[in-house]
């Protein structure tokens, strides 16, 4: 079925892209993708299981980590059908409604992950700045309320996007650059004025990811200021060491997200392979790296995981 010259948005079909020119080895390419999905799913699931079943890990830091793991799992589930569908079954077509649903979940979950990383930065700041009141400030009910507010902020901002896209007619060859749907790509397929979508998409990025990254930076400025006021060098290193895992998660997530956003908005002349590579890094690396980094750097979590598998 062709996905071209369809002016009825209800019957529009988009073609997702794998790696152009590598179609003959898609089955082999599917092996590392399957491995990444399996490792990411198992890693995040193990972290959730250990935190849930071990009362000693019911602390603010690990509650935030479980929120990050849930978000990563949801992102994997949102992208797995289309990415693996291309490389395992050469299934490139996706209906318009399915594409809208996928981009809604991808963008909402990406914004939620940004919010969780901000909350984790605040958690590290409170733990280092005021350790004696840490548990009383970040109580489970308060964490739940803050998490709900940030989740609603993300969902409410993304909610208009599918409706803004539905009002367009699509009369171009609807071939997307990635193996999943993104708002910035779908809107470019429309043969209508996309100014409103472009402005609103930029607004959501700045208001969410932009503000979150600024507040994370300010949190670490305050953390560094607090750490430098500690007299003991050993205590300073110990305090900074508790931030390493979070810094790795922040760098992996924001570097890939910002790179992808810049490429789509300003990199029209950039290599198509570069766009594809950055797209996969953005979607697959954070869920893969986060559980590994936290399991390695968190002594308590690592000990609980080893104990669970030894049993």
UniProtKB/TrEMBL annotation:
Localization annotation: Cell membrane; Membrane
Coiled-coil blocks: none
Annotated GO CC locations: plasma membrane
Domain of life, per lineage: Eukaryota
Gene Ontology biological-process entries: cellular response to lipid
Residue span, G-protein coupled receptors family 1 profile domain: 43-294
GO terms, molecular function: G protein-coupled receptor activity; olfactory receptor activity
One Pfam family it belongs to: 7tm_4
PROSITE patterns hit by this protein: G_PROTEIN_RECEP_F1_1 (PS00237), G_PROTEIN_RECEP_F1_2 (PS50262)
Membrane-crossing segments per the record: 25-51, 63-89, 101-122, 143-165, 199-223, 244-267, 273-294
Keywords for this protein: Cell membrane, G-protein coupled receptor, Membrane, Olfaction, Receptor, Sensory transduction, Transducer, Transmembrane, Transmembrane helix
Keyword DNA damage on entry: no
Topological type in the membrane: Multi-pass membrane protein
Main location (coarse class): membrane
Annotated family: Belongs to the G-protein coupled receptor 1 family.
Protein name in UniProt: Olfactory receptor
């Amino acid at each position: 079925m062709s996905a071209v010259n369809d002016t009825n948005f209800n019957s529009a079909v988009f073609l997702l892209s794998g790696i152009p020119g590598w179609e003959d080895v898609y089955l082999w390419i599917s092996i590392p993708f399957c491995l990444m999905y399996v490792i990411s799913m198992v890693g995040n699931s193990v972290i959730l299981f250990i935190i849930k079943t071990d009362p000693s890990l019911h602390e603010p830091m690990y509650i935030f980590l479980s929120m990050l793991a849930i978000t990563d799992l949801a992102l994997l589930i949102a992208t797995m059908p289309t990415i693996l569908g291309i490389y395992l079954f050469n299934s490139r077509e996706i209906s318009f409604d399915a594409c809208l649903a996928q981009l809604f979940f991808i963008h909402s979950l990406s914004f939620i992950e940004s919010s969780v990383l901000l909350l984790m930065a605040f958690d590290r700041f409170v733990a280092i700045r005021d350790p004696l009141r840490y548990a009383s400030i970040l109580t489970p009910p308060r964490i739940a309320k803050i998490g709900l507010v940030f989740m609603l902020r993300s969902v409410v901002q993304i909610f208009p996007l599918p409706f803004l896209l539905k009002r367009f007619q699509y009369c171009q060859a609807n071939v997307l650059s990635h193996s999943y749907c993104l708002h910035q790509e779908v809107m470019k397929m429309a043969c209508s004025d996309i100014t409103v979508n472009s402005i609103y998409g930029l607004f959501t990025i700045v208001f969410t990811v932009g503000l979150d990254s600024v507040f994370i930076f300010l949190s670490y400025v305050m953390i560094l200021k607090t750490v430098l006021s500690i007299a003991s060098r050993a205590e300073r290193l110990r305090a900074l060491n508790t931030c390493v895992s979070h810094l790795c998660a922040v760098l992996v997530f924001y570097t890939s997200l910002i790179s992808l956003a810049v490429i789509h908005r300003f990199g029209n002349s950039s290599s198509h392979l570069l766009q594809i590579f950055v797209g996969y890094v953005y979607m697959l690396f954070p869920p893969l790296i986060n559980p590994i980094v936290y399991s390695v750097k968190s002594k308590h979590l690592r000990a609980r995981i080893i104990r669970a598998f030894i049993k």
